Amino acid sequence: MFYDNKIWIGESNGEKVCIEPKMANRHGLIAGATGTGKTITLKVLAESFSDAGVPVFLADIKGDLSGMCRPGVDSEDMQKRIQKFGLGECGFNYHNYPAVFWDIYGDMGIPARTTISEMGPILLAKLMDLNDTQSDILTIVFKIADDRKLLLVDTKDLKAMLQYVSENSAELAAEYGNIAKQSVAAILRNVVALEAAGGEEFFGEPALNLSDWFFSGDMSGRGSINILDCRQLVHDTTLYSTFLLWMLSELFETLPEVGDMEKPRMVFFFDEAHLLFKDISKALQGKIEQVVKLIRSKGVGVYFITQSPKDIPDEILGQLGNKIQHALRAYTPADEKAVKAAAQSFRTNPEFDTYEVLTAMGTGEAIISVLDADGIPGVVKKCKILPPQSMMGPISDEEKKQEILKSNLYLRYKDEIDRDSAYEFMERMKKEEASEKQEQAAAAAAAKEAAAAEKEASKRAAAEAKAAEKQAAAAEREAARRRKSVANAAANTIGRELGKTLGKTVGGSFGKKLGGNVGASLARNILGTFLK
Fold this sequence. Notes:
Blueprint: E1 2-3, E2 6-12, E3 15-19, E4 28-31, H1 38-51, E5 56-60, H2 76-85, E6 99-103, E7 110-111, H3 116-127, H4 132-147, H5 155-167, H6 169-176, H7 181-202, E8 225-229, H8 237-254, E9 266-270, H9 282-295, E10 300-306, H10 314-317, E11 322-325, H11 333-344, H12 354-360, E12 365-369, E13 381-385, H13 397-406, H14 408-413, H15 422-531
Parallel strand pairs: 4-10, 4-11, 5-8, 5-9, 6-7, 6-8, 9-10
Antiparallel strand pairs: 1-2, 2-3, 2-13, 11-12, 12-13
Helix pairs in contact: 3-4, 3-8, 4-7, 5-7, 5-15, 8-9, 11-12
């Protein structure tokens, strides 16, 4: 409950235990065994920040936070708690909160998408469980896309880039180093598996713009409470943790430095926080540690919710200034060791044994240590947590869908946009290359056909010339024969007449006949000699 400009969490022997708003960005922890009241504590804190005008993000693992959009329901038990804490005099009343529901699958909330480029190669490698070599190659693929100014929006863009890199690995090696086709193929298989796990819905546009969460949730100036439905998402623990890490990284990279503020710009509550650190590389854990350390200077508070503090790496646990520890159970020696470590992490209160209290508390009780106005951890106190002002249980899925449709942000994000990006560019390039090859093939075929036609024409011309030459020779022979025939006839006539005349003179009639024959033969022989 937001009271006296403080985040009122609970009460310890009549003393109000509160978080100073200006210390809320020093992060926090809500821990405890199952059934000890972590969800109620989470709701009380989220409501208080909203009343203070601070936007909130909640990861709803069990689906029991949706009731925050409805006012609380009065009961005899609630009246007893209100009277016990004196809440009536402090302005406690049942009311709803400006909740906005999100879902990366778009089923039980406004679609919460991001793009491949915004996710980046480091988180994407974690999401696909790539080894070091494959992670390095994925980074190279992103670099090639950046150098060519190609947008990687969705999974089909990434697959197109991987195929391009594989097909052109030899040419790219000179500039980017050796790129093993086997590793590219392995990454491609992981992308296909990611699509089957919901990656097609998660990656796309319009991408979630986290600045939409910084506006007031209603006319009264309360901060919006953004609830991510994780009932389906948590079954893919890698996708769940990667999405949460992406949000932190995105805020870290986009928000400006603001230093210390009177209250946070935004507060994140990450349920099942142990999933964030499960099986992650040292490089990624180092990135998370860096973000958690530095993001407070950008006015963002991060609160981890988990069963045991040991679920959080020590480097990050040491950054959590506001700690709310519900009961822990020690059933095994390992559990006992964890409980002792949790008890020793608090500043000792001489009034009680922290370890004994930690194992004996009931539901709705917690030991709390918060930073004072000077940033000094307070002495641990045993507290009873306040009740929430909104409805404790969830609303029905049908009611939730109606709330989703009423949101102004629904129209902005409901329809996916598939704009021109790497896939479309690669498809155009393939078509252009295919068209160019087709044109080249057509040109080559035309050239071949022209050459064949030219060869055939040359062959035909040669044949025609040869035939004409033969025809001319034959005509010449025919002309010669005719000339010879005419000459022979003329010579024969002339020789015969001369022979007749000469024979008649010499031998009378017989001499005339003989002379004619001899004259004709002699004339033919003489003319034939000239006509050869």
